Amino acid sequence: MQAEERTEAKATVETICGLPVDRAILFADKKGIYRPRIEKGRTKLLQNLGFLSRFLDTDEKILLVTTGCSPFTTFEELTIGGAWVVAVKRALFVFTHKRLFHIPATSSFKYRGSIAQVLYQDCARLRVKGSALIAEYHNGRKEKFLFIPRGDRAIIERFAIEPNESDRPSENPQRNHLCPCCTQILPASVEACPACGQQFKTRAKALKYSLLIPGGGYFYTNHLWMGLADALAETYLLVATVVAFAMALRGNAEAWPAAIIFAFVSVLEKALTVHHSNSFLAEFIPDDLKSHLGNQPPRAEPGRAPSTEDRGPRNQAPPRGRPVLAVSWPHFTVNGGRLARAGPIKDFPHFGRIRRRGGQSNSRARGEGGQPRE
Predict the structure, then answer these.
(1) Which of 262, 281, 300 is the last residue of a domain?
(2) Which tens digit of pLDDT belongs to each residue from 231-274?
(3) Hey, how many other C-beta atoms are within 10 angstroms of the C-beta on 343?
(4) How many angstroms separate the CA atoms of 339 and 14, rounded?
(5) Cβ within 8 Å of residue 253, ≥6 positions away
(6) In what side-by-side order are the strands of the sheet with 332-335?
(7) Number of structural domains the chain divides into
(8) What is the CA radius of gyration of the chain?
(9) Strand, coil or helix: what is 276?
(10) Are residues 213 and 299 in the same domain?
(11) Phi, psi values for residue 83, rounded to 5°
(12) What is the pTM of this model?
């Protein structure tokens, strides 16, 4: 197998797919070495994130884009199923030098219309354990984002989140959802954005559709495959319940136990649909979701500069967070939102090399004297 070419990642900040990114970190592996394979994969994810430009502050840049799952409970895993819950809880995670964006996504990692943020200054700790990214907030709460890819976990571990002593947690030190229209922070359990009036799907309607239509709660929250599966199950249970009661009322005493069991399971199925629908609604799904998604910027191509229409109105709210992320890499440092050379590349002879057993090193990306190979 031909060895993958290793190239040094130069410390550059540029616009890719309409978003300001730091190439040196975004397209590098855990050793800080640029890899074309990583650039291809992360550029593909960036193409689905054109809407994110209006959420970023003027001086904010993207350091890492990765995938994983939104938090879910053991009860949801048991009642939905392990494979199903991973599919319906897919999410994208975007690290900047100020905060972490949590973006619920479809199975193909496309935008669902919801977005949340975690300010680094709100975290007592933000660490990786196993396949999980664990956020421990100053209010004592803890959240787990599971199934972070192995290679990206190592990169996240190299991120040193070091709030300044003057930094204070926000009023709600936790994961806060943002309005997808005006980008403002949303209070818990509101049915409309206080700033722009954007309406969100409600629990009352989810309950109504869940009770009246088989699978209606899942259809209402835009989980079509779950809705179809639930509709088939509810339809079968409904028919079985009606038939069993009809037989029991005609004098078949043996049909009563079956009728009661089918009726109980039908009620339980409805209750689970309502519970799962309410869990999905906690992500603040826009009421006019199709219209909202239709108004999003088109899928961006790599290197395409954002137009005024793509970027949308610039966020006028106070800064979301201070630049508190310090990233130490083989030849550059990001601290306080500024990219600065830690020194000339020749001062870091270990960069771009593979360490052999016994302490010897083999240069792959550099020639003698620290000069790049032709």
Answers:
(1) 281
(2) 999 999 999 999 999 999 998 888 999 999 999 999 999 999 99
(3) 11
(4) 12
(5) none
(6) 159-161, 325-328, 332-335, 338-341
(7) 2
(8) 25
(9) helix
(10) no
(11) -70, -40
(12) 0.78
